[in-house]
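Notes from the pairing session

We agreed to fold both candidates in a single pass and log them together. This is the raw record for the first candidate, unedited. Please don't reformat it; downstream parsing expects exactly this layout.

Candidate A
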Amino acid sequence: MRTNQLIYLTGPSGVGETTCALAAVSAFNAKLHKLDDLCRGRTNKGRFCEEAVLRVEASNEQNGRLDIIDVGAGTQHDCNRDLSRFLQMRRSQSILIWASPAEVIQRNPLGPRRNPEEYLRTEYTSREHLYSIPSQCDH
């Protein structure tokens, strides 16, 4: 029996979703797809690059391996509403990597000049709906 699995990882910048994805790639011989790369140049006024992701899903149905889509901060920011609708239909395949803002801000995501209030507003508050979709995994 062949088992196909595709999961979507989300989380605020600096929380560790890419680190978790890379560990899974190594442990399970999975393939990593970075959504920011898949969508580069394909977002239009907040419209999600659904066609690029559907191609990954179609490929996953044929390849019999674990595929991981790392939903990067750029796509989360640019396509929040469309991405939320898309992932809502894939809730069972979605995982949220989470840590409190106070913990993550200490990791200094995006450098020393980023304002902590802007970080909290952009990475947490504006994405509450998106982050409520997947199962939560504390990091």
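Candidate B (folded immediately after A)
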Amino acid sequence: MKEPKTTLDPNMEPLRDYVLSKPSVQDGYPFGPEVMVFKVGGKIFAFMAWEENPVFISLKCDPQRALDLREQHPGIIPGYHLNKQHWNSITPGDSVTTELLHELIDHSYDLIVASLTQKARAELNSI
């Protein structure tokens, strides 16, 4: 896997570590060293654009919840270069707490796990 050329923003390291703490998560750089991609069961559930200014993370989200979150938090916008109905891009900061970010990471992960085949879910549960 291609490694990033520079060090990770220290504010994003704990967030990356949280994403990687989810069961069976794999990370990589399929789109270049500036975007970390996180997968479970071979499907993407998070993108971290850590070289952007400001840095942001994109997460899959239930469509209605995605709209509600965008209305409530200026730091949450439709997914950058993603399906805007199902993805949000989130800039950590004043309106987006660490607790909310963790909740949204969990939600994205759970949506992808639920979309996996029964066999793939069983394999995840056995790990």
